[in-house]
Amino acid sequence: MRILITGAGLIGSYTTAELTAKGHRVVLYDLAPDEAYVRSVVRQPVEIRRGDAADFPSLLDLMLAERFDCVMHTAGLIGGAAQRQPWKAVQVNVIGTVHVAEAARLAGTQRVVYASTHGVYDFSKRTDEPMTESSPVSDETVYSACKLSAEHLLRALGRAHGLEVIVLRFTNVFGRGLYVGGSTGGAHMNELVRGPALGKAGRILPAVKGKGEWLYVKDAARALVLACERKEKSGYLVVNIGTGVLSTEQDLVAAVREAIPSARLEEVTPAGPVHRAPERLQPYDLT
C-alpha cells in the first residue's frame, strides 16, 4: 500500500516503522520534521516531505501526484499548547483535518485514519463503568473542542463523499519522543523513564500522578496499521485504543524500578501551571 502520514513525531514515526517493516511505502509529511529522530526510529527507507496540512494546495498536489491508498492524520497541537494558542489549534487540528479529508476525496484516496484522543470524553459523567465509544463527551478545553469538531466534520465529509474514516481515540501515549506537539503526559512519562535508562535520576512530574491509562507508542502504531489494513468496509468507525488498565504514580515508579533496579527518582515541582488531562476514574472498555 501507498500511505501518507501527517506528523513525523512520536506516533507518526513509530507507525512508519511498523508499516515499512511490512513492506508498505510511506511518505511522512511534517511542517518541521526532525529527520535525525525519524531515522533513529525508522530502519527502512522512508521519504520525508516538509509541508503543512494547513497549506491545502501543497497537500493536494502531493496527494494527486502519489495517489495514496490511505492517509493517516496524526499531526496536531495537543493539550496546553492548544489552550495557549487557540487560533493556531483550530488551524492545525480542525482546518488541517478538513484539508486532509478534502485532498483525500479529490485524489481518490479511499480511507482516512484519524488519531484522536481520550481527551474528548467527560470522565466526570462516567464514574462507575469503563468508558465506551458512546460515553459522554466534553468540549471544555480548546483541545477537546478541536478534536470533537474534527471528528464530526470527518463523519459528515465521509458520509457526503463515501470516504472511509476510522477514528482512533488514544489514551496517554508514551515512548522515546520529542513531544513538540505539546503532550504533557507523554513528556512527563519520558522524564520518568529517560533518566534511569541513561544512568541518571528520573523526574517525577505532575502528569504521571493520579490514575491514568498509558499506552506504549508501539501498540498505538500497531492499532494505526490495523486500521489502515482493515479489509472490511466500515464507513465511519470510532474505536478506543488503550490498555483497559489504570495505573497510579506508584505503579509507574514500581515498573521503572523493576526494569532498572538501580533507578534513582526524584519528585519535581515545575515552575508555573501544568496543563494535564483530568485524573481517570475508569479505564477504557476495549470491546
Task: Give an account of the 3D structure.
- Strand 1 (2-6), helix 1 (10-21) and strand 2 (25-30) form a beta-alpha-beta unit.
- By secondary structure, this protein is α/β, with parallel strands linked by helices.
- The chain has helices at residues 10-21, 35-41, 56-66, 79-84, 86-107, 142-161, 184-197, 217-229, 249-259; strands at residues 2-6, 25-30, 47-50, 70-73, 111-117, 164-170, 172-174, 201-204, 214-216, 236-241, 264-267.
- It contains nine helices and eleven strands.
- The two termini are 28 Å apart.
- The relative contact order is 0.15.
What is the average per-residue confidence, as pLDDT, rounded to a whole number? 92
- The total count of strands amounts to 11
Class by SSE composition: alpha/beta
Shape category: globular
Low-confidence stretches: none
Distance separating the two termini: 28 Å
- Taking all Cα atoms into account, the compactness measure Rg is 18 Å
Reported for the largest beta sheet, the result is: 7 strands, parallel
Q: Given the structure, what is the number of helices?
A: 9
What fraction, in percent, of the residue positions are helical? Answer: 40-55%
